[in-house]
Design a protein that fits this description.
Elements: H1 2-13, H2 20-33, H3 44-59, E1 69-74, E2 77-84, H4 87-105, H5 117-125, E3 131-136, E4 142-147, E5 151-158, E6 161-169
Helix pairs in contact: 3-4
């Protein structure tokens, strides 16, 4: 949701701003889904209240040698894909990235479904479909955003190299 909101802001205003009301509503929903009480709606309260569970699961996960990307699935369906320029970039960001996926996995889901690898591959291929725009990044390089009917994709490109590509479901397909 935040990626989509920032993309719209960059296209319309040339700034990287998110619709903060919607972001806070999403945070409140995530906290509620995880059974976390937070008077201030601080996302960090997830770690404070469910940290041991997150750390336990996170300690069981390590990137494979040469791994430079992560695909997150819920109920056998892809929900997020992150690809980095090299394995060392993923390794530096592993704990935060995978920790957020682990926290999401703590939300009770109905049943487990098998993974259809061809459907997953098709989902990843579809990440490049849609309206693409480029904008100067907040720091180095430029931000490339692609919004499609099924995906919202963003990339940080520095000196012609995509340092990080992230994709998830299009806003119209997400819970708000």
């Amino acid at each position: 949701m935040k990626r989509h909101s920032v993309t719209l802001s960059a296209r319309a205003l040339g700034t990287f701003s998110a619709d903060q009301r919607t972001v806070w509503e999403e945070v409140a929903g995530s906290l509620g889904d995880l059974g976390v009480d937070s008077e201030t709606l601080a996302y960090s309260d997830i770690e404070k209240q469910r940290g041991p569970e997150i750390e336990d699961r996170l300690s069981q996960l390590q990137p494979e040698p040469g791994q430079s990307g992560v695909l997150a699935l819920v109920g056998g369906k892809p929900v997020a894909f992150d690809l980095f320029d090299r394995p060392s970039t993923l390794a530096r960001l592993w704990k935060a990235l995978i920790g957020s996926y682990v926290a999401d996995s703590l939300v009770p889901k109905a049943g487990k479904e098998s993974v259809d690898l061809e459907a997953v591959a098709e989902w990843i291929r579809g990440a490049a479909a849609g309206e693409a725009t480029r904008h100067p990044a907040v720091g180095l390089g430029e931000s490339v955003s692609i919004t499609g009917t099924k995906h919202d994709t963003s990339a940080l490109v520095v000196d012609g190299v995509a340092v990080h590509i992230a994709t998830g479901p299009a806003l119209s397909r997400m819970r708000i």
